[in-house]
């Protein structure tokens, strides 16, 4: 077990952050190559060729506004750009793409090094402050942004989230670090070691985003007891009736799983399935889990009410075509007016 004084912790965080800075600036110079697994959404070619393009918002549009939350290694401004085809199909729709911090670099860094509970709190406040969202909004979470937006729905019911689209979100966490996309991998290796050995130590939980949804099936009890984010929003510890009540206010919860996902381990987490405690092979499906059978979050009730949708898309993590998205997500869930 690593012994960690306050001093050592400060050093470690500083070291991780500087390693991160190094790889990040290296990547920026290489023309955004780092965004391979988050920005390469579409099979039909690169989507980030000409830099972000600003899109005018049509304030007289009656489409329900959208809120996006980006994934790990990505930034709000890039997601808005990559998903611009949605705005083209919903002319004038208001879009807020979550950005944490004051710069793109900060925003990317927050995907690793800022306590998720603090991030959710901040995003709740921004949503509440945004008058364009006051009558409600649809939310699209990419990868870890999926579980973060679910936390927003459960903790901050006003203004109301109407439909939540989770694209490859890890609702039961992960056991395995997503492929590191950085060319300098040293900081990834440090994170990997932290997750494997000390994920449930308080000091790691407080600063490392991936530890906050790290779900080690061989340490189920420690996970339930110490996970500051995922075990909380999944009502594993305390059964918070507000979470259950608020989640059920959604009109639809749409869970998208990527059939050939090589990033999320196990990919079934995208549909709330997970490894059986004590195994890293056997999967327990949502319907067979206590979370569902005892209905800790209201998912059973939502499923029976036709509000829970399990969709799958062929391909790897976040690889989908605009045609697939339009047919399965945009037309049924986003093409609605207030
Ligand atoms: C704004 O949206 C409204 C309603 O969809 C539409 O009728 C109008 O043409 C749009 N205006 C512009 C400038 O795009
Ligand atoms: C929300 O609005 C309040 C009151 O105007 C302000 O103090 C606060 O900083 C805002 N919060 C965010 C996250 O924008």
Automatic annotation (TrEMBL):
One Pfam family here: Palm_thioest
SUPFAM superfamilies referenced in this protein's UniProt entry, alphabetically: alpha/beta-Hydrolases (SSF53474)
A single GO cellular-component term on record: lysosome
Signal sequence range: 1-25
Record keywords, A-Z: Disulfide bond, Glycoprotein, Hydrolase, Signal
Reactions this protein catalyses: S-hexadecanoyl-L-cysteinyl-[protein] + H2O = L-cysteinyl-[protein] + hexadecanoate + H(+)
Top EC group: hydrolase
A biological-process GO annotation: receptor-mediated endocytosis
Gene3D superfamilies: alpha/beta hydrolase (3.40.50.1820)
Coiled coil regions in record: none
Superkingdom per UniProt: Eukaryota
Family to which the UniProt record says this protein belongs: Belongs to the palmitoyl-protein thioesterase family.
Protein name in the entry: Palmitoyl-protein thioesterase 1
Species: Orchesella cincta
């Amino acid at each position: 077990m690593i012994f960690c004084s306050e001093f050592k912790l400060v050093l470690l965080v500083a070291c991780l952050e500087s390693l991160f800075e190094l790889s990040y600036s290296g990547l920026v110079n290489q023309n955004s190559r780092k965004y391979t697994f988050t920005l390469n959404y579409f099979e039909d070619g690169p989507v980030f060729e000409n830099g972000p393009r600003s899109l005018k918002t049509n304030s007289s549009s009656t489409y329900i506004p959208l809120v996006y939350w980006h994934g790990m290694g990505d930034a709000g401004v890039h997601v808005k750009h990559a998903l611009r085809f949605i705005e083209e199909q919903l002319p004038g729709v208001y879009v807020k793409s979550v950005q944490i911090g004051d710069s793109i670099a900060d925003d990317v860094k927050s995907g690793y090094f800022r306590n998720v509970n603090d991030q959710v709190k901040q995003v709740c406040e921004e949503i509440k402050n945004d008058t364009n969202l006051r009558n409600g909004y649809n939310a699209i979470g990419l990868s870890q942004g999926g579980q973060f937006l679910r936390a927003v729905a459960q903790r901050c019911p006003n203004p109301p989230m109407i439909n939540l689209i989770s694209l490859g979100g890890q609702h039961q966490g992960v056991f395995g670090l997503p492929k590191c996309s950085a060319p300098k991998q040293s900081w990834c290796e440090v994170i990997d070691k932290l997750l494997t050995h000390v994920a449930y130590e308080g000091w790691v939980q407080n600063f490392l985003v991936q530890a906050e949804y790290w779900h080690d099936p061989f340490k189920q009890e420690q996970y339930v007891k110490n996970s500051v984010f995922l075990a909380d929003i999944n009502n594993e510890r305390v059964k918070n009736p507000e979470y259950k009540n608020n989640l059920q206010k959604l009109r639809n919860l749409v869970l998208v799983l990527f059939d050939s996902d090589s990033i999320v381990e196990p990919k079934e987490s995208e549909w709330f399935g997970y490894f059986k405690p004590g195994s890293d092979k056997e999967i327990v499906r949502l319907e067979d889990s206590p979370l569902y059978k005892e209905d800790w979050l209201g998912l059973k009730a939502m499923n029976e009410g036709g509000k829970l949708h399990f969709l799958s898309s062929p391909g790897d993590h976040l690889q989908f075509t605009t045609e697939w998205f339009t047919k399965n997500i945009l037309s049924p869930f986003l093409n609605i007016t207030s």
